[in-house]
């Protein structure tokens, strides 16, 4: 077909079909590309949050251990104070029993 030949409705319909097919192929490729990029971005985000989550878990375990150590330390100190108070009371009772009446 030369450039001066007029286009017929059949020519235009064939051209339209080729354009629709090409646009459909481009749309399919574009959607696949977007899906792949979205999946890659999701994977990177999950990996980043996983690293943060692991770090946060370590910090929380340390805080729990520190808190537990404080509780144990406080319990031990309170126990020592109770022991000293009991010892003091026993001495006081012993001194009172030795005092002449």
- What's the number of extended β-strand segments? 0
Q: What percent strand?
A: under 5%
Alpha-carbon distance between the two ends = 139 Å
Give the structural class. Answer: mainly alpha
Compressed to H and E, one letter per element, the order equals H
Contiguous low-pLDDT stretches (5 residues minimum) are none
How much helicity do the residues have? over 70%
Biggest beta-sheet profile = none
Arithmetic mean of pLDDT: 88
- Give the overall silhouette: rod-shaped
Radius of gyration: 43 Å
Question: What do these coordinates show?
Answer:
- The protein is mainly α.
- The chain is 89% helix and 0% strand.
- The protein has one helix spanning 9-98.
- The chain starts with 8 loop residues before the first helix and ends with a helix.
How is this fold's topology laid out?
Blueprint: H1 9-98
Brief overview:
This protein has 101 residues and is mainly alpha-helical. It starts with 8 loop residues before the first helix and ends with a helix. The chain has one helix at residues 9-98.
Key traits:
1 helix, 101 residues, mainly alpha
